[in-house]
């Protein structure tokens, strides 16, 4: 197994460039940077960033996310003219990230893997692990088609029920492990 560590600007300038992204990583870490991407590139930039991460992961890949809390944004909004302007345009808040990554981007599961212990309260943020299904591209297209058909036939009220499907929220570690085991068995039988 080889390891490659890359540092750089992962935010593309426009959505059309997403189609050039190749599946090349098994794991992507996003620690303490969502606020900075959000303040510098706004809602569209952060959503594009999340979509690119999904596309950059190989099937079965893992995305580790440490989102920063919304109140921390206000403290840094005046850093530049751009951050100040973007702060007041933000509608896509950190509490929306999980749902967006699961429902809109396409990650199959989300698991809370822990909250680091730190002297600074601001760094005690949950670490979330999102997984990309271990499927071939044709399977993903079929699944997307099925999901779109399901969306058309289901009502909005079922989406907002008190018991959302497991794939629409982060599971605690024990529940997520059970769900992942079932998912792994299903993926294995579908090969």
What distinguishing features does this structure have?
191 residues, Rossmann fold, 4-stranded mixed sheet, 7 helices, globular
Short structural description:
Helices cover 43% and strands 15% of the residues. The chain has 191 residues and is α+β, with helices and mostly antiparallel strands.
Instruction: Trace the largest sheet across and list its strands.
Output: 1-2-4-3
Number of strands: 4
CATH superfamily: Vaccinia Virus protein VP39
Portion of residues in helices? 40-55%
* CATH class type: Alpha Beta
CATH fold annotation: Rossmann fold
Largest sheet: 4 strands, mixed
Q: Rg from C-alpha positions?
A: 17 Å
Count of separate DSSP helical elements:
7
The portion of residues forming beta strands comes to 5-15%
Q: Mean pLDDT, nearest integer?
A: 77
Q: Uncertain regions: pLDDT < 50 for 5+ in a row?
A: 149-180
- Gap between N and C termini, in Å? 24 Å
Could you say which structural class the secondary elements and strand pairing correspond to? Answer: alpha+beta
**Shape by Cα distribution:** globular
The structural domain count equals 1
Q: Please name the CATH architecture.
A: 3-Layer(aba) Sandwich
- Listing every helix as H and every strand as E from the N terminus to the C terminus, the arrangement reads EHEHHHEEHHH
GO molecular function: O-methyltransferase activity; RNA methyltransferase activity; snRNA binding
Region (Disordered): 149-174
InterPro entries: Bin3-like, Bin3_C, BIN3_SAM-bd_dom, SAM-dependent_MTases_sf
Keywords: Methyltransferase, S-adenosyl-L-methionine, Transferase
């Amino acid at each position: 197994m080889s390891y490659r560590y890359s540092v750089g600007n992962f935010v593309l300038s426009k959505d059309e460039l997403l189609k050039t992204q190749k599946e090349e990583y098994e794991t992507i870490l996003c620690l303490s940077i969502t606020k900075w991407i959000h303040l510098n590139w706004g809602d569209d930039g952060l959503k594009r960033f999340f979509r690119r991460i999904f596309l950059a992961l190989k099937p079965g890949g893992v995305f580790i996310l440490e989102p920063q809390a919304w109140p921390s944004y206000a403290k840094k909004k005046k850093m530049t003219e751009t951050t100040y302007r973007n702060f007041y345009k933000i509608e896509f808040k950190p509490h929306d990230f999980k749902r967006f990554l699961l429902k809109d981007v396409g990650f199959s599961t989300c698991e809370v893997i822990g909250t680091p212990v730190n002297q600074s309260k601001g760094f005690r943020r949950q670490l979330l692990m999102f997984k990309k299904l271990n499927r071939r591209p044709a399977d993903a297209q079929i699944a997307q088609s099925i999901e779109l058909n399901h969306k058309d036939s289901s009502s909005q009220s079922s989406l907002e029920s008190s018991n959302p499907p497991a794939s629409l929220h982060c599971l605690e570690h024990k529940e997520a492990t059970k769900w992942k085991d079932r998912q792994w068995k299903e993926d294995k039988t579908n090969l």
